[in-house]
Amino acid sequence: MAFDYSKLRGKIVEKYGTQCLFAKALGVSERTLSLKLNGRIYFTQIEIKRILELLDVDSNCVNTYFFTEKVQKVEQSLRGA
Questions:
Q1: Across residues 66-74, what is the average pLDDT?
Q2: What is the pLDDT of residue 74?
Q3: What pTM does this model have?
Q4: Alpha-carbon span 16 to 72, nearest angstrom
Q5: Residue 20 to residues 28, 49, 78: CA-CA distances in angstroms?
Q6: Which has the closest alpha carbon to 50: 40, 65, 70?
Q7: pLDDT value at position 76?
Q8: What pLDDT is attached to residue 37?
Q9: 56 close to 15: Cβ distance less than 8 angstroms
């Protein structure tokens, strides 16, 4: 299952300017953060809690930032119509 972290990415840039600065605040490498945001490895519960704190996001919004499923875009062909 793939998750859409676009809102999380936007909030990171809004609050920290770059993913690099945010990774330092979180205490992980920029590479680790990138792997997590690209769905290669998962965020831990502790990381999720810390991220919500760093970004000043209410815990009631956790689903919006971490558990929105990625929707695959499917192009429809109008050939033969």
A1: 83
A2: 61
A3: 0.83
A4: 29
A5: 9, 19, 44
A6: 65
A7: 57
A8: 97
A9: yes
